[in-house]
Amino acid sequence: MRERILILLAGIAAGLLAHNLFIILLQLPDERLQGAVFRVIFFHVPDAWTAFLLFFAAMVASILYLATGNLRYDAFAVASTEVGLAFALANLVTGMIWGANIWGTPWTWDARLTSMLIGCLLYAGYLMLRHAVEDPTERAKNAAVLSIIAFADVPIIFFSIRWWRRMLHPEPVVWGGGFMSPDYWRMLFLNWAPLLLLAAVLLAIRMRQEEQQRELEALRRRAHAL
Amino acid sequence: MMRFLRQSLAVAAKDLRAELRTKEALNSSVAFALVILLLFSFAFEPTEDQTRQIAGGLLWLAFAFAGALILNRSFARELANDCLDALVAAPLSGAALFLGKALANFVLLLAVELIALPVFGVFYGVNWTRQLGPLMLVVVLGTWGMTVVGTLFSALTVNLRMRELMLPMLVYPVMVPALLAAIQLTSPLVMGQPLDGELMVWLRLLAAFDIIFTALTLALVETVLVR
């Protein structure tokens, strides 16, 4: 049953994506100043939103794990962080494609780029820490502490880098005073939907993997004990 | 509260005494900081103009590298003879144990920095004492930020196979705001510029980082230590 629901959700996400790509690539006009490459924004921006949402969810799950000791929360935290990292990297890569065309260079040490890179390094460190610890409860506990610290650090990093570097990045479209035509706006949210669905499906699959792996390890330990 | 502080100071005194008798972390850390200061002189022309721009970065990177050596030893030292288990089982809170260790690391790293600073002055021909008071304030705040976060990560990574590698990998990205603020403050201060105007923003950021992470690490350390 769970399998079917996941396949159904993935199917809906694929259908929506195909529909959105058709509109984005063939029906929306080029942006007046930036031309065709502007379309990257419909993936770039929702990717960042999804990544932040997932990192936030990972932090909440980590707190819940520390409060309850239930390893399901740990499975959710690691799944959420891994999928979030994938979306954060997609955000960086799409941004670099856009930058290579508009700025003439894929990378500048601008505030947003630098902050996102540090965020990616933090969460990559989280995954590395998990690999380095054998015992499941100790792994879960240490990872949860790191996840909470990482999420608390992200806003501080963001503001410190912002004072350090003048912003080259266009103002964010939400709360940033950037301007976008309503058609583009609608498309941005329309395209967020399949990406969110995709994230949810990946999260569910990864979480089940994590739980099965833990079960396997427990069985192996029992077999050894016998 | 008094009891908590007394316990922390006892742990700090124990760590400092053990370190002063062997000097294993202190010696390697000082030597490492000096090697880095030497290597940086190949990376750029140590003229006054260039030094002015990168003095802060140079010093704080040397401090951060040297600090990783001290932090690595902080909890690893307790692994032999199961001392860590004994400390955790001792009748003091995890927060007191952590604060004591953080204080000891702070004093050790500060000592390394106070040795490295005059050497920096000689190597790069900088009269760095012109703003001594504000500079010391920045050094103290920056070092506390580094050690309080670093000590928690020292506890987190103490049982890992690749401890020496994992600690800096994890802790440097977390330290970014503190390092950045300290670097931005140190470059002008070392060159004799007074602490005012735009620099106050960085000082406030540094102080905020220290407060936030002291509170956060003290709150989280109990779960890290009690296994």
Number of helices of chain A: 6
**Main sheet of chain A, how many strands, which sense, barrel?**
none
Structural class of chain B: mainly alpha
> What's the helix count of chain B?
8
Give the H and E element order of chain A. HHHHHH
Low-confidence stretches of chain A: none
Rg of chain A (CA only): 20 Å
Category from helices, strands and their pairing of chain A: mainly alpha
Q: How is this structure best described in words?
A:
- The complex is a heterodimer of chains A (226) and B (227).
- Chain A has one domain (2-28, 35-225).
- Chain A is 80% helix and 0% strand.
- Chain A has helices at 2-27, 41-68, 71-102, 111-132, 136-164, 182-225.
- In chain A, helix 3 crosses helix 6 (182-225).
- By secondary structure, chain B is an all-alpha fold.
- Chain B has one domain (2-225).
- Chain B has helices at 2-22, 24-43, 48-76, 83-89, 94-123, 132-156, 163-190, 198-225.
- Chain B starts with a helix and ends with a helix.
- Chains A and B meet through helix 4 and helix 5 of A and helix 6, helix 7 and helix 8 of B.
Brief overview:
The complex is a heterodimer of chains A (226) and B (227). Chain A is an all-alpha fold.
Summary keywords:
heterodimer, A: 226 residues, mainly alpha, 0% strand, globular, B: 227 residues
Topology of helices and strands:
The complex is a heterodimer of chains A (226) and B (227).
Chain A: H1 2-27, H2 41-68, H3 71-102, H4 111-132, H5 136-164, H6 182-225
Chain B: H1 2-22, H2 24-43, H3 48-76, H4 83-89, H5 94-123, H6 132-156, H7 163-190, H8 198-225
Helix pairs in contact in B: 1-5, 2-3, 2-5, 3-5, 3-6, 3-7, 5-6, 5-8, 6-7, 6-8, 7-8
